[in-house]
Amino acid sequence: MKRFSKHRNIINLVGCMTRDGPLYVIVEFARYGNLRDFLRARRPVSTYGSRILGMHQAEDIQQLTMRDLVSFAHQIACGMEYLASNQVFVHNMFKHKFH
């Protein structure tokens, strides 16, 4: 397995187990969970007045600003640049539709 130095915009692989059963993957702890659910939970209220909440209540969730979204996009780009510079092939990452 190829080793990389830590990068602040990449959740690092801690370990994996592939023998004798299902594949187990252990990654660094992400305080806010996965990015997709984090962003979905903080969507602006739609014209119908509904939002995807997951496990949160509407009053507990702070909406994101345009500055937050641009910052997230920049951080993702920095992480992808790091992976590309280390010749890491990330497949199917953007294949799925995000609603």
3D architecture notes:
With 99 residues, this protein is of the alpha+beta class. The protein has one domain (13-85). The protein is built from two helices and two strands; from the N terminus they run E-E-H-H. A two-stranded antiparallel ribbon has the order 1-2. The longest helix has 20 residues, at 66-85. The protein is extended and about 45 Å long.
List the helices and strands and how they pair.
Layout: E1 13-17, E2 24-27, H1 35-41, H2 66-85
Antiparallel strand pairs: 1-2
Radius of gyration (Å):
17 Å
Q: Treating each run of at least 4 consecutive H or I residues as one helix, how many helices?
A: 2
Mean pLDDT: 78
> What is the string of SSEs from the N terminus onward?
EEHH
Query: Which structural class do the helices and strands define?
Result: alpha+beta
Uncertain regions: pLDDT < 50 for 5+ in a row?
Answer: 47-57
Q: Percent of residues in helical segments? A: 25-40%
Label the overall shape: extended
Order of strands, main sheet, comes to 1-2
Largest sheet: 2 strands, antiparallel
Q: Please state roughly what percent of the residues sit in beta strands, choosing from under 5%, 5-15%, 15-25%, 25-35%, 35-45% or over 45%.
A: 5-15%
What is the total number of structural domains? 1
According to DSSP, the number of beta strands is: 2
Oligomer: single chain
State the distance separating the first and last CA atoms. 34 Å
